């Protein structure tokens, strides 16, 4: 961009928050370009040449100011979809933006996978934006934690933006709490346009002002500002960034802006905004007020202004023409970047032989040993969650033993590795997973714990919409290979509805996520190590009932022992019935098999422990059924729409002509796990259920 010489006579840098004429003119260029891009996209959408549009009209002044206080390529940015002007200021070009509008294969933010205005640029540290309105806040906290972890004296800032509506999301509050607790350098930018689609502020925010609501957060610098006023916005953001950089804590800039166009092209704001309200908003339009200010101040004359406007129009026109000529993403590319192309956890490289030494250990012992060994080997591993630390009050460790997890899986890790690598978090599952995502995006290896599977649901959006999508949606630009450890399952005698459920199928249904569920100490060790050395997000399900069983123990298999994902274990061979299962049902299937074989001398039952649920070992299932011609798929989780339904459907599809009997499923009743042992026993599948179904199939 060429700059136009300023009329220096009346210009005084001090008057303009220290900004010189060139910078002010640059700000004008950015704001004008942003609006012209929005207008161009709207025209293209109306011509059906692009497929979605959402504008930043009215937000440009504060966004440009934010971009000017950031250090592109050094600071980190979690933008909102209205942040076109922010991204232009940071260095994203109009052409790059239009490549996303048309959905081109060469769109650098997403390769045509995401809607326009879902910004992302690895080189500019603009972390791939998604559509959920609050998920970005907790990830930004994790990102700032990573800056601190790498360099305690770092003056990097993580900026995270959101709207007034987004401040109603729980993750906003979880993020503020975590950022203030740790005095993290997170700069929250709330672009308050008074509406979330059609919902006005008074129906959104108690008292109608988010600044008032957050007044009690300690260490948080608050700035409330007219976000249509460029200089006021710049001052607020500059001071906020300085507060963050100095290590004093987070800051929040609450910018009052206007949303000049409807929410998106799918909305018509005339349905809920009066003409008078719309007129009042347009009077604050920075697209008009800022150039007027530049002219009034003599920083730019009308002729120079016209030249710039003309140049921008040309540039946007050219960029649009060029973008429209670009190729669409190839059909064959649909599966690319779902998983890492760098590390393949299903590969032979992870098929290590165990070198066992010492006494048999429980699953808890070997999980703990594996965490320790991997933490020694990889200094980027961080472990956190509720109660996972030995003792948050470190000084107490002189007197007390420490907690180390409600199941003791993480016991002693804080003592060995220190509180910066092993720490307790607030009781906030979305934040636990979101922070892990932010850290992993920065190259740390978070091993986070959700205390019970039954309480994973607040984190579901982080898992499904963020953890599993990040690599794919950014076309390989970003990834977040988190390991999420989650105790799961029943057969506990007293666990009941909220401490005994399964539900793994909710996660195996998610593309981009690996799901494993070991049944014994040896597999738990090998699979956890693979998870921690993998480059994909892994949901690591630890069955609580199996933590300390005597029968599934193993001596330590060596500190490099790994097991590839997607590789089943034949735990018992047989030739006329296969039971495909995993988790706590493996042992029950074995017992059932032996029970049936004792009385039925024709019976010879093969038991397969899948170990990995996504991916799963189809080859092992197939070759067993080709031999036995009869199959039961069994699991602890409920039957209907369950994990077994997928396996059974595939067997029916691909092995129909190999079957001598119908495919049978065994699982829990389609209800919740009850507290009284008699009720739990009736609900969860038992050895007798498996034996009965095995007999029926063998007799078919
Ligand atoms: C979690 C979630 N819920 C609902 C939506 C649908 N939605 C998209 S934008 C939006 C309104 C957001 O309002 P605000 O945060 O004020 O931002 P603005 O659009 O006004 O800039 C809603 C409800 C969404 N994207 N994500
Ligand atoms: Mg809004």
Features:
alpha/beta, Rossmann fold, seven-stranded mixed sheet, elongated, binds thiamine diphosphate, binds magnesium ion
Provide an overview of this structure.
The protein has 3 domains: 13-325, Thiamin diphosphate (ThDP)-binding fold, Pyr/PP domains (Rossmann fold), CATH 3.40.50.970; 348-556, Rossmann fold; 569-699, 3-Layer(aba) Sandwich (Rossmann fold), CATH 3.40.50.920. The chain has 23 helices and 21 strands. A 7-stranded mixed β-sheet has the order 10-9-11-12-14-13-19, sandwiched between helices. Strands 1-2-3-7-6 form a 5-stranded parallel β-sheet, with helices on both faces. Helix 2 packs parallel to helix 3 (84-90) and helix 5 runs parallel beside helix 6 (170-181). The protein is elongated, with a radius of gyration of 29 Å. It binds thiamine diphosphate (TPP) and magnesium ion.
**Strand arrangement across the biggest beta sheet:** 10-9-11-12-14-13-19
Number of domains: 3
Q: What portion of residues is helical?
A: 25-40%
Low-pLDDT segments: 1-5
Number of strands: 21
Give me a quick take on this structure.
With 700 residues, the chain is of the alpha/beta class.
Could you outline the blueprint of secondary structure elements for this entry?
Blueprint: H1 21-46, H2 60-69, E1 76-78, H3 84-90, H4 94-102, H5 135-150, E2 158-163, H6 170-181, E3 186-192, E4 195-196, E5 199-200, H7 210-213, E6 221-226, H8 230-245, E7 251-256, H9 275-282, H10 286-296, H11 302-324, E8 357-361, H12 363-377, E9 381-385, H13 413-417, E10 422-424, H14 429-441, E11 445-449, H15 460-467, H16 470-473, E12 483-488, H17 505-508, E13 514-516, H18 521-533, E14 538-543, E15 554-556, E16 569-572, E17 577-581, H19 585-599, E18 605-609, E19 612-614, H20 618-628, E20 631-638, H21 643-654, E21 664-668, H22 677-683, H23 687-699
Parallel strand pairs: 1-2, 2-3, 3-7, 6-7, 9-10, 9-11, 11-12, 12-14, 13-14, 17-18, 17-20, 20-21
Antiparallel strand pairs: 4-5, 8-15, 13-19, 16-18
Helix pairs in contact: 1-2, 1-3, 1-4, 1-10, 1-11, 2-3, 2-8, 4-11, 5-6, 5-14, 12-18, 14-15, 19-23
The structure holds thiamine diphosphate (TPP) and magnesium ion.
């Amino acid at each position: 961009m060429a700059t136009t010489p300023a009329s220096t006579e009346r210009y005084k840098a001090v008057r303009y928050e220290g900004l010189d004429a060139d910078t002010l003119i640059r700000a004008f260029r950015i704001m004008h370009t942003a609006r012209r891009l929005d207008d161009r996209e709207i025209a293209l959408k109306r011509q059906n040449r692009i497929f979605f549009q959402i504008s930043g009209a009215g937000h440009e002044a504060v966004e440009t100011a934010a971009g000017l206080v950031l250090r592109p390529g050094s600071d980190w940015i979690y933008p909102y979809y209205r942040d076109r002007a922010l991204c232009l200021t940071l260095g994203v070009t109009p052409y790059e933006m239009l490549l996303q509008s048309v959905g081109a294969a060469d769109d650098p933010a997403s390769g045509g996978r995401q809607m326009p205005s879902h910004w992302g640029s690895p080189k500019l540290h603009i972390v791939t934006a998604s559509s959920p309105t609050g998920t970005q806040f907790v990830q930004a906290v994790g990102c700032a934690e990573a800056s601190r972890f790498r360099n305690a004296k770092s003056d990097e800032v993580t900026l995270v933006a959101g709207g007034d509506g987004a401040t109603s999301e729980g993750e906003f509050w979880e993020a503020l709490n975590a950022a203030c607790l740790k005095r993290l350098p997170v700069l929250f930018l709330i672009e308050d346009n008074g509406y979330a689609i059609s919902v006005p502020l008074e129906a959104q925010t108690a008292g109608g002002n988010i600044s008032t609501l957050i007044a009690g957060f300690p260490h948080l610098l608050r700035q409330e500002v007219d976000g249509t006023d460029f200089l006021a916005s710049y001052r607020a953001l500059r001071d906020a960034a300085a507060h963050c950089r100095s290590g004093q804590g987070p800051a929040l800039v609450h910018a009052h802006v206007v949303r000049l166009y409807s929410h998106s092209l799918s909305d018509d704001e005339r349905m809920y905004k009066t003409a008078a309200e719309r007129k009042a908003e347009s009077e604050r339009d920075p697209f008009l007020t800022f150039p007027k200010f530049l002219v009034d101040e003599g920083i730019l004359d009308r002729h120079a202004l016209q030249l710039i406007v003309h140049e921008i129009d040309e540039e946007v026109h050219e960029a649009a023409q060029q973008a429209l000529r670009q190729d669409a993403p190839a059909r064959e590319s649909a599966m690319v970047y779902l998983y890492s192309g760098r590390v393949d956890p299903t590969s032979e490289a992870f098929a290590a032989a165990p070198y066992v030494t010492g006494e048999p250990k429980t699953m808890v012992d070997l999980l703990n040993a594996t965490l320790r060994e991997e933490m020694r080997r990889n200094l980027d591993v961080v472990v956190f969650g509720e109660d996972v630390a030995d003792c948050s009050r470190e000084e107490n460790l002189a007197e007390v033993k420490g907690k180390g997890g409600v199941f003791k899986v993480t016991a002693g890790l804080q003592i060995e590795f220190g509180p910066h690598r092993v720490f307790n978090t607030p009781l906030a599952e979305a934040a636990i997973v979101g922070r892990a995502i932010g850290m992993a995006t920065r190259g740390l290896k978070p091993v986070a714990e959700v205390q019970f599977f039954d309480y994973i649901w607040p984190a579901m959006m982080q898992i499904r919409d963020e953890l599993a999508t990040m690599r794919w949606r950014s076309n390989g630009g970003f990834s977040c290979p988190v390991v999420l450890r989650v105790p799961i399952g029943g057969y506990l005698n007293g666990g009941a509805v909220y401490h005994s459920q399964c539900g793994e199928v909710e996660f195996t249904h998610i593309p981009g996520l690996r799901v494993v569920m070991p049944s014994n100490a040896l597999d738990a060790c090998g699979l956890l190590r693979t998870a921690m050395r993998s480059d994909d997000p892994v949901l690591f399900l630890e069955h609580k009932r199996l933590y300390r069983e005597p029968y599934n123990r193993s001596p330590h298999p060596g500190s490099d022992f790994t097991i590839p994902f997607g590789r089943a274990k034949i735990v018992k061979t047989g030739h006329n019935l296969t039971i495909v299962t995993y988790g706590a049902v493996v042992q029950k299937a074995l017992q059932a098999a032996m029970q049936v074989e004792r009385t039925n001398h024709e019976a010879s039952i093969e038991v397969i422990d899948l170990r990995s649920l996504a991916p799963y070992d189809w080859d092992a299932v197939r070759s067993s059924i080709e031999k036995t011609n009869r199959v039961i798929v069994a699991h602890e989780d409920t039957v209907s729409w369950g994990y077994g339904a997928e396996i059974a459907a595939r067997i029916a599809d691909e092995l129909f002509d190999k079957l001598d009997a119908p495919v049978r499923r065994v699982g829990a009743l389609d209800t919740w796990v009850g507290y009284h042992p008699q009720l739990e026993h009736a609900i969860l599948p038992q050895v007798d259920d498996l034996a009965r179904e095995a007999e029926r199939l063998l007799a078919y």
